[in-house]
Amino acid sequence: MSSDGSDAANTASDLSPGPHDVVLPEGWPRPSGYANAISARGRSVFVAGQIGWDPRTYVMVSNDFAEQTHAALENVIAILRAAGASPVHVVRMTWYITDLTAYLAALKEVGQSFRVLFGGHYPAMSVVQVNALLEPRARVEIETTAVVPD
């Protein structure tokens, strides 16, 4: 369900398989929930950091870490779609979090949201703990790079 209470039209079930290659060095175990590297060619889409607010009103959806993450991911997807891309085109994500303990406590719910919205597609990802974000109530900000094949 989207942050506005409607059924999310941007679930992974309507997405085709990823258009790029996951890079895994020989002998390395496959990582869980992310890729070590993605190789891609095409048109790049750079999505600025998105937080868990309603972008029309600038009101945070909640103080809850998992709910903010779900809304931030929905905001990423809305921008991707406006650029003619989808979650399967995402090659890189950087998550900036303000509270590692809250992130770890919400990891199960965050993972469920990610799977609903991104399906089995796991881009190269980094999670960085920061002291604060520009929006005082924001607990997570997600920056994304996508590559749409030529």
Largest sheet: 4 strands, mixed
Mean pLDDT across all residues, rounded?
88
Q: What fraction strand?
A: 25-35%
Dominant shape: globular
Q: Tally the beta strands.
A: 8
Any key phrases for this structure?
alpha+beta; 150 residues; disordered N terminus; two-stranded antiparallel ribbon
Walk me through what this model shows:
By secondary structure, the protein is α+β, with helices and mostly antiparallel strands. The protein has a single domain (12-148), classed as RutC-like (60s Ribosomal Protein L30, Chain: A), CATH 3.30.1330.40. Helix content is 24%, strand content 27%. The protein is built from 3 helices and 8 strands, in the order E-E-E-E-E-H-E-H-H-E-E. Strands 3-8-6-7 form a 4-stranded mixed beta sheet. Strands 1-2 form a two-stranded antiparallel sheet. Strands 4-5 form a two-stranded antiparallel ribbon. Helix 1 (65-82) packs parallel to helix 3 (107-118). The longest helix is centred in the middle third of the chain and has 18 residues, at 65-82. Mean pLDDT is 88; it is low at 1-17.
Short description:
This protein is α+β, with helices and mostly antiparallel strands and 150 residues long. It has three helices and eight strands, in the order βββββαβααββ.
Layout of helices and strands:
Layout: E1 21-23, E2 37-39, E3 43-50, E4 53-54, E5 59-60, H1 65-82, E6 90-97, H2 100-105, H3 107-118, E7 124-129, E8 140-148
Parallel strand pairs: 6-7
Antiparallel strand pairs: 1-2, 3-8, 4-5, 6-8
Helix pairs in contact: 1-3
